[in-house]
Amino acid sequence: MKKIGLSLATLYSDLAQSVQTRVFRPGSIFRMKVKGREYVYVKRLVGTARLTDYLGSVDDPATEAKVELVRQSQELARQDRETIRLLIRSGIPAPGRQLGRVLDALSDAGIFDDTVLVGTAAYQCYSPMVGYILPHPALMTGDADLAAAHLAMKSLPGGETLLDVLRRAEPSFAPVPALSRPTAPPSSFKAKDGFRVDLVTQQRTRRDQNPLPVKGLGAGAAPLQFIRWLITDPVPAVVLHGTGVAVRVPQPARFAMHKLILAQERRDDQRAKRQKDLMQARGLVEALQESDPYALADAHRDATRQGKPGWARRIDRSLDELELSLGEG
C-alpha cells in the first residue's frame, strides 16, 4: 500500500474541519416578492435535486447576516472542491457518482446524526484516516449501509421519510418489500440501476422481527449481530464528493475486527463477500500496524473481551487465513 504523505494528510484534515463545521451549504441567493413584500431565499443542489430554503425578509437585519454566511460558505466550498480534486488526483479514494449523491442527500437531511455509515461505503473513507491508500478492489461497491444505534430517531422536517430523502439522489429509488413481512416498513431501497441502500441495527433477541420499525424515518432496520459494538463511539469523516460530504463511520480498528469476525459468518454461497471482508480487514490491519498500532491492539482486546461466544475464535481464524499477526501493540 502507498503511504499518504504529510501534505496530503494535512489537506484532508483541513477539509474535514471545513466540511464538518459548515453552517450553511453553498447555494445561489435570490429574492422574491410575495404580496408586496420581498423575501430572500437560497437555492442549493442536494444529490440531483434543487432545494429552496427560506432565509427571511429583506428588511430583517438577521436575514442579511444569513446571506453573508451563505456567501462565505460559497467561497469556502469553492476551496474545498479544489482540495477534493487534488486529493483524488493524488490517489485518495472517492465514491462513484451514485454513492456520492446518496450520501450527500442523507448527510444534508441530518440522517448521520442518528446513524453510522458502515460496509464498503465506510471503508472508502479510511485511507486518509489510516495514512495509506487502501487496496482498490476492496473499495468497489454498489450499495450503502446505514447502522442505527436505536430505533427512535428525530423526525425529518415536513414529515418526510427516508425514501423521500433518497429520491433527491435518484428519483427511481423504491422500497424493497421484506419477503417474510411484506407490510412491514422497508429496510431496503433500490434504484433502477441496481444501487441499494440498507438500514440495519443491532439484533436484540433471536425473536426480533425483521425488519424492526424505526420511528422518525418511515422505514425499518434489519437486525444483525455485532452492530452495536461496531458503531460504538463512531468518528467523523468526509466523503470526497462535490464540495465534501460529512458522515460518521466506525473507528477503523473496530471496522477491521468486525470484518475479521464477519468473514467467518459467511455462508458457502457468500464466498465473494467473504473474500472482500478479508481483503478489507487485511488492508486496515496492515495500515494500522504502521500508523496506529495501539488503536488496533485496543480494538482487538475489547472485541475478545466482549464475552460473546466465538468472537476471539472467529478473529483468530481469519488472521490465520490471512497469515497475519497482530503482535503486542
Summarize the structure.
By secondary structure, this protein is α+β, with helices and mostly antiparallel strands. 41% of the residues lie in helices and 22% in strands.
Structural class: alpha+beta
Arithmetic mean of pLDDT: 92
Helix-strand topology string: EHEEEHHEHHEEHEEEEEHEEHHHH
Helix content: 40-55%
| Largest beta-sheet characterization | 7 strands, mixed
End-to-end C-alpha gap:
20 Å
* Separate helix tally: 11
Residue windows where pLDDT falls under 50 for at least 5 positions: none
Q: How would you sum up the global shape?
A: globular
Quaternary structure = single chain
Task: Tell me what you see in this structure.
Helices cover about 40% and strands about 20% of the residues. It is α+β, with helices and mostly antiparallel strands. The model has no long low-confidence stretch (mean pLDDT about 90). It has 11 helices and 14 strands. It has helices spanning about 5-20, 60-90, 95-110, 120-125, 125-130, 160-170, 225-230, 250-265, 270-290, 295-305, 310-320; strands at about 1-5, 30-35, 35-45, 50-55, 115-120, 130-135, 145-150, 175, 190, 195-200, 210-215, 220-225, 235-240, 245-250. Strands 5, 7, 8, 9, 10, 11 and 12 form a 7-stranded mixed β-sheet that branches. It is globular. Helix 8 packs antiparallel against helix 9, helix 8 packs across helix 10 (about 295-305) and helix 8 crosses helix 11.
